[in-house]
Amino acid sequence: MLKNHTSEHFPFLGISDSNRLSDFRCRTTFYTALTRLLMVDLGEDEDEFENFMLPLTVSFETVLQIFSNNFKQEDVKRMLIGLARDLRGIAFALNTKTSYTMLFDWMYPTYLPLLQKAIEQWYGEPACTTPILKLMAELMQNRSQRLNFDVSSPNGILLFREASKMICTYGNQILSLGSLSKDQIYPMKLKGISICYSALKSALCGNYVSFGVFKLYGDNHFDNVLQAFVKMLLSVSHSDLLQYRKLSQSYYPLLECLTQDHMSFITNLEPPVLLYVLTSISEGLTALDTVVSSSCCTSLDYIVTYLFKHIAKEGKKPLRCREATQAGQRLLHFMQQNPDVLQQMMSVLMNTIVFEDCRNQWSVSRPLLGLILLHGKRFSELRAGLIRSQPLPKQEALAQCFRSLMEGVEQNLSVKNRDRFTQNLSVFRRDVAEALRSDSSADLCSLDMMS
Question: Quick check: is 295 in a domain?
Fold first, then answer.
């Protein structure tokens, strides 16, 4: 099987019309199984790997020769779809640095540009773009540290550059489709965008690319892909971000990576774009999907921490880190122009803690402390409103709960202080629940903390 895996031996690997495109996904499973068999004795044997890849090499060479000729375009497209499915199965099974490097050396620089051309030519056909984008997303996965190339190897940067080109090409082309109907928007557009976001997230969090290198050497591939991210994002409504699970589960973890390591990019966003991003976080905080709500909490925590640290340093005005100071000033200015943004999110988080079944209490606690420290006055108003909304016998008990919440908590965001607040919040939630429990109605609905 390892030496004989062509359409002659396995008819479902053929490109004839008798094989439906939807059935091509079985080829991914087939090649994952086959590659796992190969890995049993592969070791560092490059010749054996080349022999295994020979049928795919022949197919790619055929596509190279006929791509620009007067050949039946449908056949070329079906061949590329099949190859993308096959390669994704192979890449999924290669979990060691040695074996993955063999695959990358086989694909780059000869065959990856072919997939780029396919995206350019058939961007409006998800049957073609989805397998190719999924292949790229798989190649970006640093599973088992397989992408930790040798220090003398530029492969990590080369791989990211190819992914950047593909994401930018797809993003620019897909936006040219214009408005789509409700039943077309996910398969034609949002599915591809979610795969692009997933690939970009894998690259940003994979620790195999030093992104500072791009700016240092005047390479714009990193900036381009971030701009493509923004363009695609602005073409999606907030409701669609949360309605389509795969899209929300790729967008919010990607945003988490950006706020963790690339706050300079976040602070440089145009005010309407930054407002869009922050609104998406605010709406995601109440999502039923804990992956989404936890990512929103983490992203919000990074933003709030960045802002808090900037305000703390503002009085010192050090000559060094002037660029970072300017970035912080931009964010501070935006928040001063839009004070309701963070205050609204503090209300949402407090509402979640007090009234809802909070399944990610630890995640909620992290940004909440920073918000309380930044907006102490607004927190006092929320506290007073909650206490006033309760019957007189309960008001003192509730006031004591709030006093205990901030007991021992200092005016900083050190890890020790955060942990203390998280512990206090756990006790606070339990005590508030007990204080409100005795009333059958408890007038919980009378307080609209979201207003």
Answer: no
User: Does the predicted model carry a pTM greater than 0.90?
Assistant: yes
Range of the domain at 193: 1-236
Alpha carbons 384 and 381: distance in angstroms, whole number: 5
For residue 271, whether the previous peptide bond is cis, meaning omega lies within 30 degrees of 0, is no
135 is a domain residue: yes
C-alpha to C-alpha distances, 296 to 143, 239, 349, 375, nearest whole angstrom = 24, 15, 11, 19
| Distance, CA of 448 to CA of 451 (rounded, Å) | 6
Q: How far is the first Cα of the chain from the last one, in angstroms, to the nearest whole number? A: 65
Residue type present at position 217: Y
Task: Kindly compute the dihedral angle of the four CA atoms of residues 143, 144, 145, 146, in this order, to the nearest 10 degrees.
Answer: -70
* Sign of torsion over alpha carbons 219, 195, 366, 227: positive
Q: Which phi and psi (to 5°) does residue 24 adopt?
A: -65, -25
Residue 218 in domain: yes
Provide the number of structural domains found in the chain: 1
Sign of CA dihedral 248, 250, 254, 256: positive
- Rounded to whole angstroms, what are the CA distances from 205 to 4, 225, 366? 38, 15, 21
Q: Is residue 223 part of a domain?
A: yes
Report the length, in residues, of the chain.
451
User: For residue 7, what is the DSSP state?
Assistant: T
pLDDT digits (tens, 9 = 90+) for 202-213: 999 999 999 999
Chain centroid to CA 208: 17
Burial (CB < 10 A; 0-12, 13-18, 19+), residue 426, is: middle
Give me the helices (H) in 262-320, please. Answer: 263-267, 271-284, 290-314
pLDDT (tens digit, 9 = 90+) per residue, 186-242? 999 999 999 999 999 999 999 999 999 999 999 999 999 999 999 999 999 999 999
Taking the C-alpha atoms of residue 232 and residue 276, their distance in angstroms, rounded to an integer, is 12
Question: How many Å apart are CA 444 and CA 389, to the nearest integer?
Answer: 8
The DSSP code for 186 is I
